[in-house]
User: Which sequence fits this backbone?
């Protein structure tokens, strides 16, 4: 699927008695629900919501004062049928768009009416769909679980549509798995924070997503963690993914090659590491060293990425750093909030200050409005800066910080598609990226993943686990 799916409550709790775990959890919920409820939303999802509003409005009031169970059931069935018909029509529109797009030549004008599918004209911002989506079937499945059509006071929501799109994408891959010549799923990639674990968290031994990842590997599916966390050494990733490493070590069901099908793409598309039982830095009691080993850039970096000028990269980061410093002064951000410069990224992150009354360090956080102002200004300024236009960069709001990275998640995923099998690269229709940040470009970094493969927009690590169970067991 093109990637129709995004993520973000207000975390005004400043109690110093909150644990770090609670803080991280609240930050995660803020980030997810903010985007789902009050930020700029996905135009395609909002368009579907608008279509579903008509049958809801027509039948909502008619049953409010009724106590007749038979009448209520009849209305529910009528609404359910109308919702299903709408999703069936959208299903046809997506299939038509896929067929229409396949006839266009590379570089052909897609902005004129003659170069657009019906869906492009209805939803101008729509992207590329890599697979057809059984939306009617997905709606009926979700409705059976959540009784969407039985609601009279609450219309189908953004989350309802998001989940239906997710389910449709899962159903597609389940169908392909059962077809002799189907385009089966060959690679699944994940964001880190809020997708595999809570914001700022780690993968511990008890994390329920770990058995799911092992099952994907056992199915000979390549697994990549494509994260904004940008470390140029393996130890930092190994600390955050310790539970997964332990599970791989202990696994007797996975072959060596299957274990090596796990990779980490850090800093969006800047650092590649592969799981190894020989070269990692994770020392065990038995003397083995399992973990992640770095892969040289010459081996995996895409040709056009190699052509980027080092000067353009440094000038882009310099300009982004100057912009952040200027914004820090203009927005009166406390001195304790640091700006951090890395080799391939620069960002502004929460700080800490000593509280005399409590006699301890307390967090110094950026306000939601400050985060928005920073990321949008940074994006806008860089788009007009000549060196940054000659490369690719990503500006995103992580929920508590703002970063500018060189590259993007689309490049990270495209890199893995080719790296795993240079002779027969994995296709976008054989790729699935799971993430929580699918807000509009300039505010979330999973957005660009839509350019490289099918996507699932989740809102919590538990959603990731639930979806993977359906994918694996289907």
Assistant:
């Amino acid at each position: 699927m093109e990637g129709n799916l995004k993520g973000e409550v207000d975390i005004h709790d400043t109690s110093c008695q909150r644990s770090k775990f609670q803080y991280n959890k609240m930050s995660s919920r803020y980030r997810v629900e903010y985007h789902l409820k009050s930020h700029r939303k996905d135009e395609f999802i909002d368009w579907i919501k608008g279509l579903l509003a008509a049958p809801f409005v027509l039948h909502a009031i008619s049953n409010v004062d009724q106590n007749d169970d038979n009448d209520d059931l009849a209305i529910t069935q009528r609404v359910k049928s109308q919702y299903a018909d709408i999703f069936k029509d959208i299903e046809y529109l997506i299939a038509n768009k896929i067929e229409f797009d396949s006839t266009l030549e590379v570089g052909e004008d897609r902005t004129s009416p003659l170069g657009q599918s019906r869906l492009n004209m209805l939803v101008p911002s729509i992207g590329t769909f890599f697979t057809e989506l059984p939306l009617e079937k997905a709606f009926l499945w979700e409705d059976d679980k959540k009784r969407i059509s039985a609601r009279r006071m609450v219309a189908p929501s953004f989350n309802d549509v998001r989940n239906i799109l997710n389910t449709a994408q899962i159903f597609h891959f389940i169908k392909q798995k059962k077809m002799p010549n189907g385009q089966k799923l060959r690679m699944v990639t994940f964001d880190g924070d809020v997708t595999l674990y809570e914001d700022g968290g780690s993968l511990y031994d008890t994390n329920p997503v770990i058995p799911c990842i092992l099952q994907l590997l056992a199915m000979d599916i390549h697994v990549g963690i494509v994260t904004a966390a940008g470390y140029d050494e393996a130890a930092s990733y190994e600390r955050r993914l310790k539970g997964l490493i332990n599970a791989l070590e202990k696994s007797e069901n996975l072959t060596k090659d299957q274990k090596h099908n796990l990779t980490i793409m850090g800093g969006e598309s800047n650092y590649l590491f592969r799981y190894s039982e020989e070269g990692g830095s994770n020392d065990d009691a038995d003397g083995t060293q399992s973990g992640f080993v770095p892969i040289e850039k010459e081996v995996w970096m895409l040709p056009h990425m190699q052509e980027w000028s080092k000067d353009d990269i440094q000038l882009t980061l310099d300009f982004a750093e100057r912009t952040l410093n200027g914004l820090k002064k203009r927005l009166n951000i406390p001195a304790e909030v640091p700006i951090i410069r890395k080799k391939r990224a620069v960002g502004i992150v929460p700080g800490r200050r000593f509280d005399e009354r409590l006699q301890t360090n307390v967090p110094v956080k950026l306000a939601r409005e400050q985060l928005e102002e920073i990321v949008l200004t940074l994006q806008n300024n860089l788009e007009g800066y000549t060196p940054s236009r000659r490369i690719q960069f990503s500006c995103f709001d992580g929920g508590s910080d703002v970063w500018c990275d060189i590259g993007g998640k689309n490049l990270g995923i495209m890199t893995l598609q080719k790296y795993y099998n240079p002779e027969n690269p994995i296709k976008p229709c054989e790729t699935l990226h799971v993430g929580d940040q699918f807000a509009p470009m300039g505010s979330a970094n999973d957005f660009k993943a839509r350019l490289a493969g099918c996507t699932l927009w989740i809102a919590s690590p538990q959603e990731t686990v639930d979806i993977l169970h359906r994918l694996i067991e289907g």
